[in-house]
Amino acid sequence: MSEIEKLERRLKERFVRAFATYRLLDDGDHVLVGLSGGKDSLLLLELMAGRARISHPQFSVEAIHVRMEDVSYETDTSYLQTFCDHLQVPLHVVTTSFSASRPRVKPGGEAPAAGDGPASAKPPCFLCSWNRRKQLFNMAQLLGCNKIALGHHRDDIIHTALMNLTFQGRFDTMPAILHMRKMPLSVIRPLCLIDEADIRRYAELARYQPLLKQCPYEHDTHRAAVARLYADMERMNPEARFSVWKALEAEGKLCQ
């Protein structure tokens, strides 16, 4: 087998294992995939579209790409359209923006309704993420989707746990599946058992088109700092990722 064939097999095995372990999909699901245009979301959509062609379970897939006017990074939407057409997945492109204050977040972390307004100042990364997420929830409900799939991989989930522990004083993270309390939606992260290094290499071998412009804030955040800390942890103990993951599972933080 070639390198890409071996890697593709490993990615698919971990993808399917995530569904079985955390019960991410059921028959009749209508899933909206958040497609940023980065390597993680491209792989997510490719794997989801391939799985949707298998009869067990039966589910349908659509994709959404949210363009943010306030941040000077850019994705080639014609490439995303071609990518989705090849996979036979409908693509919805939405443009939005954010102001210099954050919206009110409802108890339990649910995405607010479209009319909810700002409350206090927050960093650009928070505002961008929050407004993108609101567009995903709005589109999911408009299309009648019951699940939203996001491209967070295992490293993302561990980084979030370390961020929360370091800056928030709590041991928590983005779960593999999150059932929303006040709307009939669940958020799933099917790449949760896949390591970023494998995604990066697959993106190179599969020749995914990179973003036209990178986000100007991506290296100046707590997440970037924690990623460097995490790299140091793995140099100290190559098994560190599995230790953190085991702790998250033991505390029930991966299914909510």
Structure notes:
With 256 residues, this protein is of the alpha/beta class. The protein has one domain (3-250): HUPs (Rossmann fold). It is 45% helix and 14% strand. It contains eight helices and eight strands. The protein has helices spanning 3-22, 39-52, 77-87, 124-143, 154-168, 196-205, 222-236, 240-250, and strands at 29-34, 59-68, 91-96, 102-103, 118-120, 147-149, 177-179, 186-188. The strands form two sheets. Strands 3-2-1-6-8-7 form a six-stranded mixed beta sheet, sandwiched between helices. Strands 4-5 form a two-stranded antiparallel ribbon. Helix 5 packs across helix 7. It starts with a helix and ends in a 6-residue tail after the last helix. The model is unreliable at 102-120 (pLDDT under 50).
What's a concise summary of this model?
The chain contains 8 helices and 8 strands, in the order H-E-H-E-H-E-E-E-H-E-H-E-E-H-H-H.
Features:
six-stranded mixed sheet; Rossmann fold; alpha/beta; two-stranded antiparallel sheet; 8 helices; 256 residues; single chain; 45% helix; 8 strands
Q: What layout of secondary structure does this protein have?
A:
Elements: H1 3-22, E1 29-34, H2 39-52, E2 59-68, H3 77-87, E3 91-96, E4 102-103, E5 118-120, H4 124-143, E6 147-149, H5 154-168, E7 177-179, E8 186-188, H6 196-205, H7 222-236, H8 240-250
Parallel strand pairs: 1-2, 1-6, 2-3, 6-8
Antiparallel strand pairs: 4-5, 7-8
* Count of runs of 4 or more consecutive helical residues: 8
CATH superfamily: HUPs
Rough outline? globular
Output the radius of gyration. Answer: 18 Å
Broad structural category: alpha/beta
Q: Summarize the amount of helix as a percent range.
A: 40-55%
Strand order of the largest sheet: 3-2-1-6-8-7
Percent of residues in beta strands: 5-15%
- Give the number of DSSP strands: 8
Intertermini distance: 39 Å
**CATH overall fold name:** Rossmann fold
Q: How does the major sheet shape up?
A: 6 strands, mixed
Total tally of structural domains? 1
